[in-house]
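Support request, please re-run this one:
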Amino acid sequence: MDEAGLMMVAAFTGGVMVAAWVALLIVALRESRVRAQATRDAEMRFERLKAEVNMAAALEIVILDVKTGGSAGLTREQRAIREAIAAQRVYFEVAHVHPDTLAVHVQ
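Re-run finished. Output below.
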């Protein structure tokens, strides 16, 4: 029963005790709705976070060097890059450059 229905019950039955009981029911109903909405919001945030984590876990980055010709090998720099990747010494950075001062901030 919704709040309007509870108020009608209180109006038809009369009496202070019934009205107080109905008022308590209305407060409990409102609190229950607030808790339910908060739970739904938290579940939605959790699902979004879970999707982001799953996306990051499934993400693979491939550095591809296309060679033409039968004997094209890697240069010294390319071998060094390959070795750094194999040793997991590759990471991602963002550098912010202030346009006026050319100051660089690396995160």
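The longest strand covers residues 95-97. The two ends are 55 Å apart (CA to CA).
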